[in-house]
Amino acid sequence: MVSMIRDLGLAGPGQRKIDWVALHMPVLNRIKMDFTRHKPLAGKKVAICLHLEAKTAYLALTLQAAGADVAVCASNPLSTQDDVVAALVANGVKAFAWHGATDDEYNIHLTRALDCQPDLLIDDGGDLVTLLHTERPEQARHIIGGAEETTTGLHRLRLLAAADRLLFPMMAVNDARMKYLFDNRYGTGQSVWDGIMRTTNLVVAGKVVVVAGYGWCGKGVASRAKGLGARVIVTEIDPVKANEALMDGFSVMPMQRAAQLGDVFVTTTGNRDIIKAEHFTVIKDKAILANAGHFDVEINKQDLAAVAVEVATIRQNVEEYTFRDGRKVFLLGEGRLVNLAAGDGHPAEVMDLSFGIQALALAYLNENQGVLKPGVYPVSAEIDRKVAELRLAALGIMIDHLTPIQQKYLSSTW
Ligand code: ADE
Fold first, then answer.
1. Most buried residue among 22, 41, 49, 378 by CB atoms closer than 10 A?
2. Does domain 8-179+347-395 match CATH 3.20.20.100?
3. Which of 20, 25, 49, 50, when mutated, tests ligand 1's pocket best, judged by the most ligand atoms within 8 Å of its CB?
4. Closest by alpha carbon to 253, among 264, 263, 244, 242?
5. What is the CATH architecture assignment of 185-341?
């Protein structure tokens, strides 16, 4: 299968990006050393549908070191970095992706990755698994299993499983503690502000930031906004999370009111129409709109286009929408994941944990081929613990251990 990429000539700078992140991913380095020795994926084909930037590339090379034949495609056309993809091809990985792919091209790229006949797969958001189930159910029945990176992807998988339509086992990587406690919270928290700040070159301190959704991603975005000196408003539909946001020191109110107060809006809900027509009628002049959820449906772009009399790209990744009354709003990264469309994604040290879990989850699936029925499976506590221990070891940090007396105390009922 011939790769479909923008330009193999970009491999040099792409390789330097991969080399940089590899220096900061000690967990994956250690797993790669073990994989190189034991080849747990020998002879297997793996398809990866993730954001194609340097950390993902290093995961692909780790799986290649485990003996797998690896093919990659993108989980979002705007997050693909063409130089990194070129470097992967130069390393013998098959790649089907380019930055800015149209919807049709995006689908062709996913289809080509599946044409490589993978035994195992990694998905981010559920598009690859959905394609298998809707258009290639026969092929799906032969998949050993896969691993899902995101909350959104797991939501889609669980709907499929509940309808009894899931055709192979999927590991819920997102729900591993060493994933969501760090990636969703600190990863999103930092990378979203990195994306917004590098794209706008504006100050955060003193601004009113509205964070829609107080899940782990929303918590991270709100906490980092506070740290940068913003006054933070949280919008929620879950009364428990709304209470949590209040006790964390944030204001809580409906979006209709927040729209009138916010300078910067960040959506993190996983749902659609979080900011829509009724909000645009009252939104503050020069508001900045950014999305951190998987799909570009949280800020309703159709509504935005409908109320605007003029749309112009005024900086890279900044679209200015001018309304009839002269108010303007600025949409970042076309309303796609701002940290990836207008940045490099989560920091390397954070993706080290998520991708450490991914690598071990794939080896686990392969080891348990034929044992696991179709379904969504939690990542085992052992894998979580191993990644946690590898990270502490890399940092040279030691922790205490239970004494036999303490163990006995905890295991006795009275
Ligand atoms: N880099 C690769 N995958 C990513 C993800 N899901 N979120 C943020 N950064 C990433």
1. 49
2. no
3. 50
4. 242
5. 3-Layer(aba) Sandwich (3.40)
The pLDDT, as a whole number, for residue 188 is 98
Backbone φ, ψ for residue 211 (5° rounding): -110, 120
Q: Which two tokens stand for residue 55?
A: 């950390």
Residue 82 near ligand 1, beta carbon < 6 Å:
no
Any ligand 1 atom below 6 A from CB of 279: no
| Secondary structure (DSSP) of 19-36 | HHHHTT-HHHHHHHHHHH
For residues 244, 245, 248, 253, the Cα torsion angle rounded to the nearest 10 degrees is -140
Residue nearest to atom 1 of ligand 1 (CA): 345
What is the residue with the minimal CA distance to atom 9 of ligand 1?
A: 345
- Two domains, one topology: 8-179+347-395 and 185-341: yes
Structure tokens at 98: 């380019």
Q: Per the structure block, which two tokens stand in for 104?
A: 């049709």
Cα–Cα distance, 357 to 345 (Å, whole number)? 18
Question: pLDDT of 334-393, one tens digit each?
Answer: 999 999 999 999 999 999 999 999 999 999 999 999 999 999 999 999 999 999 999 999
Q: What is the pTM of this model?
A: 0.96
Work out the mean pLDDT of the chain and round it to a whole number: 98
Q: How confident is the model at residue 1 (pLDDT cuts 50, 70, 90)?
A: confident
Phi, psi torsion values for 336, nearest 5 degrees: -85, 170
The DSSP element (H or E) to which 55 belongs, if any, is helix 54-65
Give tens-digit pLDDT for 79-104.
999 999 999 999 999 999 999 999 99
Sequence spans of domains, the chain: 8-179+347-395, 185-341
Q: Is the pLDDT of residue 176 over 90?
A: yes
Query: From the CA of 303, how far away is ligand 1's center (Å)?
Result: 28
Sign of the Cα torsion 132, 133, 138, 144 reads: positive
- Residue pair 85/6 in contact (Cβ under 8 Å)? The answer is yes
**Residue from 14, 31, 23 nearest 91 by CA:** 14
> Which residue bears the tokens 């006790």?
247
